[in-house]
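User: Just a sanity check before I run the rest of the batch. Below are the structure tokens for the first item. I only need the designed sequence back.
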């Protein structure tokens, strides 16, 4: 991992907390020149530490109240994790695909408006020829959902 100093980490914390903060606000908060903030952000983007900035949308307000957690077992073959992972990731409604070790090959997180839409997502998974079996759980209540990285 490339080394980050305290200023880099402070900039990342600020942007992760509120990506709408502009360079002047970050400069003022950290008591450093705007040119330094601009340079550091550009450098952090080029280094791949910042992959993008986007609004965190409220899925429930957008009608996506059903969360499915699907455990997927796939047929083993060379490179299957990349092939199946790519196919799973292209299904509309799929938010995350994780390749894992153990009896299950993938954990897939999806969001849907209702049971029928969630069932449609699962059916699309089952149509993938490399998939042997799926097991889907519906989330009853979200206790914590935060993708921020502790830095």
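Assistant: Here's the designed sequence for the first item:
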């Amino acid at each position: 991992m490339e080394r980050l100093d305290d200023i880099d980490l402070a900039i990342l914390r600020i942007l992760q907390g509120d990506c709408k903060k502009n360079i002047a606000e970050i400069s003022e908060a950290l008591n450093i020149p705007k040119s330094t903030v601009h340079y550091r952000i550009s450098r952090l983007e080029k280094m791949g530490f910042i992959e993008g900035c986007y609004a965190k949308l409220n899925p429930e307000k957008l009608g996506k109240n059903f969360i499915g957690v699907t455990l997927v077992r796939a047929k083993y073959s060379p490179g299957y994790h990349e092939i199946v992972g790519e196919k799973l990731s292209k299904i509309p409604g799929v938010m995350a695909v994780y390749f894992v070790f153990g009896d299950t090959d993938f954990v897939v997180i999806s969001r849907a408006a209702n049971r029928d839409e969630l069932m449609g997502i699962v059916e699309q998974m089952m149509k993938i020829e490399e998939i042997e079996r799926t097991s889907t759980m519906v989330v009853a209540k979200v206790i914590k959902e935060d993708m921020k990285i502790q830095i």
